[in-house]
Predict the structure.
Amino acid sequence: MLRRINVKAFGLSLGIVSAVVVFLLGFLSSFGYAGELVTFLEGIYPGFEPTLPGSFIGALWAFVGAFVIGISFASLYNKFLKLG
């Protein structure tokens, strides 16, 4: 039998992982790594840039976006689970 997903835990998990990845990309980009990916992310997350403060701003945006996507996915999964 399939189990329900804890909506808040799933959203937090996805948000934290996304925030850490974006922060590390921004931080590493200040040393010359992942330049094209950071340029792409600068267009998605306002204030994100390859500096320490910019990395924190990008991480915050990434957390919020991934949290919303995570809770949406988990909520839909739980609703469809009831239908099946």
